[in-house]
Amino acid sequence: MQILKKQLLTLGAESAIYIVEYWGMTLALKWRPRKPYIHNEIDKLLRTSRTSRECKMLTFVRTLGVPTPAVHSVDIRNHLILMDFIEGQQFKQLVNTSSKKRITTLCHEFGKLLGIMHMSDIVHGDPTTSNAVVDMQSKMWLVDFGLAEKNATIEMKGVDMHLLRRAYETTHWALQETMLESTMEGYVEISGDDAEAVLSRADEIRERGRYH
Amino acid sequence: MSSEGKVLSNIWHMLSPVEGGIHPREASRHHSDIGPGIIKRSLEDAGVSHSDIQLVAFSRGPGLGPCLRTTATMARTLAQKLAVPLVGVNHCVAHIEIGCLESRFEDPVTVYVSGGNTQIIAFAGGRFRTFGETLDMALGNILDVFGRTIGMSFPAGPSIEHAAADGVEYHQLPYSVKGMDLSYSGMLTAAKKLHLEGVPVADICFSIQETAFGMLAEVAERAVAHTKKNEILLTGGVARNNRLTEILEGVAERHGASFHRVSPPLAGDQGAMIAWTGILQHQAGDELPISDSHVMPKWRTDEQDILWRCRF
Questions:
Q1: Which one of A11, A173, A209 has the shortest CB-CB distance to B135?
Q2: Chain B CA closest to residue A202
Q3: Cα maximum dimension of chain B
Q4: Residue B5 domain flag
Q5: Closest CA of chain A from B289, distance in Å
Q6: How far apart (Å, rounded) are the C-alpha atoms in residues A163 and A182?
Q7: Dihedral over Cα of A49, B185, B61, B275: its sign
Q8: B225 shares contact with chain A (CB less than 8 Å)
């Protein structure tokens, strides 16, 4: 999987991920480097809180049955997390190469995973197709929990669903309706009657940005 | 505007209330009062006559309904009287296109920040799509409202930037980034509270700028990392701010992207951007019959097929 390694080595918006060999295992090292253009206090606070938050949330949501990479070690001072490396492909890339049926199945699963988290009052904070990885056995893993939050309100869950819809619109415009529909099916399957309040809040949030 | 993209004249006038903010009714009255004079002056400035006009473009939305209707009426009248085609332009798209004209950028991630808008827009799949935006107040609006609280006049952005230069101590304010969206209202409330507690104005202004611009930089950076585009365009009234520019330059440098801040005369709301986009649209075959030319106050950026950019 040379290609995957190369992709993961790319610099993201707030972190860089390296593939490392550690104790004979292939692991992922996530590093949040300093941003010299951001005020130092803000930058430090964000890097520290997100590193800490990500570790806790990766571990916590796994207990709910959401597949996430296991955390091996953390270095809060240097904003580093050493975790499992999930061998697979980003859901975002799979959308371009998979059959409609497979995409529908994956979206359904994505919706279910978000539903599981929301039922325990956890929001992901950045639920895009870049943050779901599908492994060789077609199992979906969620990653990137730096913006995740506990004790989530309906408003926070509504924002999560709004962001998901936005991601489909901007990145998978040609398939957005189908993808949204199957995701919602999966979401409602898990959250049942609780889904309605969240989804109507998501609609409301979408209308709030003044010019949409 | 000439069809080659030369700005022949670009006259604008902004409503500046003595106190309070912009009222839609007063704003539309302002438009109808000074509109005809502006059209006359711009023709004089450009050194052209009515008969030289080959196309009339107007801002069809998004915006305040009463204001859009006032200028749409003028545009329809002009187009009919001169017997030239009419084109309806999207305000947000126009900001991007005039910025591209000035910067010669081809396909940027645009950071559009003004009193009414805070959006990260990029071209994808035949349309301009909003990758991120504010979930509540616009950046310019936050600056204006805070400025008004401490007695600054409208628009308050420049005064806040000036005051922030003397700020020494950073006070932590709510930093709220949600995916590629952000939220500013919590920060405003906290800043007002600092003022009531007697924190020096310079320090609050400094803290507001660092926090608000830091959030904006982060969502812009997420959009750049996500779209892998290599140009960043800063536009809208708040593009005048030097600290914001410095931060976004840092983002661009980190991602190996070019950066351009649209110059003040073309960054704020003005006619040249509408005219230029109208020309691009018309060259791509677009024309709006008068009977269909109703305004669209809630026209989403991604609702328009961008025919003239199909080469991307």
A1: A209
A2: B135
A3: 62
A4: no
A5: 25
A6: 16
A7: negative
A8: yes
Do B236 and B284 belong together in one domain?
Answer: no
For residue B226, report the phi and psi dihedrals to the nearest 5 degrees.
Answer: -75, -45
Whether the CB-CB separation of A115 and A188 falls below 8 Å is answered with yes
B62 cis-preceded (ω within 30 degrees of 0): yes
**Is the pLDDT confidence value at B146 over 70?**
yes
> How far B211 CA lies from chain A's nearest CA (Å)?
7
- Backbone region of residue A201 per phi and psi (left: phi > 0; alpha: psi in -120 to 50; beta: other values): alpha
Q: Which domain range does residue B281 map to?
A: 24-90+269-309
ipTM associated with this complex: 0.90
Give the bridge partners for B86, in sequence order: B56
Residue of B nearest to A124 (CA): B179
Instruction: Give residue-wise pLDDT tens across range A81-104.
Output: 999 999 999 999 999 999 999 999
Instruction: Identify which of A179, A180, A20 has the alpha carbon closest to the alpha carbon of residue A84.
Output: A20
Q: What is the pLDDT of residues B174-192, one digit of tens each?
A: 999 999 999 999 999 999 9
Cβ–Cβ contact B90 with A under 8 A: no
B129: amino acid identity, one letter: R
Same domain, A43 and A77: yes
Interface-testing mutation among B180, B229, B299, B304, with chain A (most A C-beta atoms within 10 A): B180
Distance CA A19, CA B113 (A): 38
